[in-house]
């Protein structure tokens, strides 16, 4: 089945020649006759419309500001002819653009709409996060019943849609983010945390954007309790974000300056996983949680809040330590227990690896892309 697809995205990395995002879009293009991608972007970014492969085109919105993204994207979308399917990165702003384009061109060529969902938007913590998120949830509830297909990245999201009583034309299809298991397992250790072994007996790792919803502030409170019992415990935080200075100040106020290392961004993430003792994840909500997969496949024991695929893939106290969101006491207790029970770490990490492999159905990139196309085809077959 030949098809022409229009994708609405917010990921500006697609304009970077060597980015993984750009490579992935080219792969999606190979699945269809034509792929057109509209990307929310400001005019000041300097992006221009371009063709990046034989059948893939990019269109930046070149908006004056973020408030005109939707208007500008719809205007571009209406100009792209004979589209069979519009697929959007989320059921919020890009989803609204997709719906507007489908509605505006319905008489001309009757394109179908697929909404993709990568975050746990019905989590109470997502809703509390900001006024904008409250508006986004309302938009999603309006759009989802109108979509011809809904792809979600975890069972958690699919279940939350059903529990909320949102009536869809067809049930949500779960297709997780692709995981290259062998690439993670076979990745060499290029950067080692072992250089910190003289300073720390135990090294805890966090890999996260430094933003409020990731709740790294909670992790610092957990570390304070851990350090009280095990003073030579270090926390390495990999990532950047708007909360960096706030978190550094909090670490100082908790008298943890000597126990916390803000490492910033680093491309050798897997090396860090493979040389840390414990991976700590304190996020308030996640759609998927790729870092949990990476930690498991790197033999790094997991202590996490119950977000994303945590309780779907892992069993609490058997293959990971899973605590309720915001449960500081549980996170601290489990982390201390892990430090004091080194003999069980190998069993834990082995079970975590097995759990990941059992849940990943699309083992190869080819299988994953075939499944991706299949979901697009299903949208077109619906009456």
TrEMBL record:
Record-linked Gene3D superfamilies: Glycogen Phosphorylase B
UniProt-listed InterPro entries: Glyco_trans_1, Glyco_trans_4-like_N, Glycosyltransferase_grp1
Start and end residues of each Glycosyltransferase subfamily 4-like N-terminal domain: 36-167
Stretch forming the signal peptide: none
A Pfam short name: Glycos_transf_1
Domain spans labelled Glycosyl transferase family: 201-353
Molecular function via GO: glycosyltransferase activity
Annotated SUPFAM superfamilies: UDP-Glycosyltransferase/glycogen phosphorylase
Protein's name according to its UniProt entry: Uncharacterized protein
Species whose genome carries this gene: hydrothermal vent metagenome
């Amino acid at each position: 089945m030949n098809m022409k697809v229009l994708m609405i995205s917010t990921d500006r990395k697609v304009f970077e020649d060597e980015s993984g995002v750009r490579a992935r879009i080219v792969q999606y293009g190979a699945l269809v006759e034509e792929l057109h991608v509209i990307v929310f972007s400001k005019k000041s970014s300097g992006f221009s419309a371009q063709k990046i492969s034989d059948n893939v085109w990019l269109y930046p919105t070149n908006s004056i500001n973020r408030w005109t993204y939707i208007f500008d994207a719809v205007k571009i979308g209406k100009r792209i002819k004979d589209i069979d399917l519009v697929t959007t990165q989320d059921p919020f702003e890009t989803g609204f653009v997709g719906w507007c384009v489908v509605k505006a061109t319905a008489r001309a060529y009757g394109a179908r709409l697929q909404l993709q969902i990568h975050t746990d938007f019905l989590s109470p913590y997502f809703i509390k996060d900001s006024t904008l998120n409250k508006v986004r949830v309302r938009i999603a509830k309006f759009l989802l019943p109108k979509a011809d297909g809904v792809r979600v990245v975890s069972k958690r999201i699919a279940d939350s849609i059903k529990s909320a009583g949102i009536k869809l034309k067809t049930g949500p299809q779960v297709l997780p983010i692709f995981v290259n298991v062998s690439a993670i397992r076979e990745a060499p250790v290029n950067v080692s945390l072992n250089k910190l072994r003289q300073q720390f007996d135990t090294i805890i790792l966090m890999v996260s954007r430094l933003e409020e919803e990731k709740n790294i502030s909670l992790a610092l409170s957990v570390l304070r309790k851990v350090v009280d019992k095990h003073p030579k415990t270090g926390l390495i935080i990999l990532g950047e974000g708007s909360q960096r200075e706030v978190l550094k100040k909090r670490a100082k106020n908790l008298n943890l300056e000597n126990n916390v290392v803000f490492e910033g961004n680093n491309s050798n993430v897997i090396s860090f996983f493979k040389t840390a003792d414990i991976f700590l994840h304190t996020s308030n909500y996640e759609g998927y949680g790729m870092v949990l997969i990476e930690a498991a496949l790197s033999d790094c024991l997991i202590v996490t809040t119950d977000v994303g695929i945590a309780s779907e893939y892992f069993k609490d106290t058997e293959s990971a330590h899973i605590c309720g969101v915001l449960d500081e006491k549980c996170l601290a207790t489990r982390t201390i227990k892990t430090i004091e029970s080194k003999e069980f770490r190998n069993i834990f990490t082995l079970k975590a690896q097995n759990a990941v492999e059992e849940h990943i159905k699309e083992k190869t990139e080819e299988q994953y892309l075939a499944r991706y196309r299949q979901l697009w085809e299903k949208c077109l077959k619906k009456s």
